[in-house]
Each structure stands twice: as C-alpha cells, then as structure tokens.
Amino acid sequence: MSFRSRLLLFGYPLLEIATAYAVALWIGWGWMLLLVLLGFPIGFALMRNAADAAMRDVQEAAATGTEPDASKHALAFFGGLLVMIPGFWSDLAGALLVIPLTQRLFRRNLSSWLSTRVTTIRMPGVHYPGGDIIQGTVIRTDPEDPPGRSPRGAIED
Predict the structure, then answer these.
(1) Triad 125, 129, 133: Cα angle to 5°
(2) DSSP 105-116
C-alpha cells in the first residue's frame, strides 16, 4: 500500500474527527451533531434534483437530436453524495461541486473526460429521432376466444 493510499485511508477520517471535535468545542456537541445529521436530507435532495434535471436534459436532447451534457448533472449528483457523507470536509467538497461558480471550473476539466466514458442510454417512452418506427395495429388473441368473435383488444373500424 502506497503512502498516498494510507494517507487517504487513515488521514481523512482523522481529519474529519478532529474537525468535528473542534466544531463541537466551538458551537456545542448538540449543534455539531445536528449539522452532521442535516447532511443526509440535504445531500439526498441535491442528488434527486440532479437526477431530475439530467432526465429533463436527456428528454430535451432526444427531442432535438443532440447529445446531453452529462458533466453538470454528474457533478451535482456527486456533490450531493459527498454532502450525504458525514463530515464537514466532505460537505465542503460537495458544496464546491454544487455551487454554479465553482462547478463551472470543475466541469471544464471533467467534460472531456466524461464525454469519452459516458454513453447515452435509450430510455423507454422517449422518442429518438432517426430510429425506425413501424406503425401498425396490435391484436391480442386469446386461445379461449370462440371462433368468429373478434379478439380482445382489437380495434374495430
């Protein structure tokens, strides 16, 4: 195990614990615990909003025939995940990924990396221009139907 991985594995939790202890001494243990616990619903809401916005962008891109920009929503989703992780430093990193000003800085670096690794998944119920559309009538037949009776679900003109 390299020094960097050991530092991340052991140093980061120690940094979070030391910061939580310092904040608890500064504002009190109850307030510190409340701040840490508030990260769960806030992070969940950030993740949900990023997922909803990504779905809207995918639908708009499908309607116009363009590729959606996944980097903005991926950063916001990951920022929400970092806010959900208990700790003040992870909350700070998550907030930096969610705030629009700093998000633009990260997005410039991440956009090219993501575009080579993320593919668009076709979602059911979304029309994709350029695809084959075969129009027709679906008639469901049931082996128990008596002869001469129209099948269930058939559209009669």
Answers:
(1) 70
(2) HHHHHHHHHHHH
- Taking only Cα atoms into account, the Rg of the chain, rounded to an integer number of angstroms, comes to 25
90-147 pLDDT, tens digit per residue, is 999 999 999 988 888 888 777 667 666 666 666 666 655 555 556 667 666 666 666 6
The pLDDT assigned to 3 comes to 85
Q: Do residues 81 and 43 make contact, with C-beta atoms less than 8 angstroms apart? A: yes
Q: Which two tokens stand for residue 140?
A: 């469901």
CA dist., res. 132 & res. 109, Å (int): 37
pTM (2 d.p.)? 0.65
Name, in order, each residue with C-beta under 8 angstroms of 69's C-beta and a sequence gap of 6 or more: 57, 111
Task: In the chain, count H helices and then E strands.
Answer: 6, 0
CB 80 within 8 A of CB 44: yes
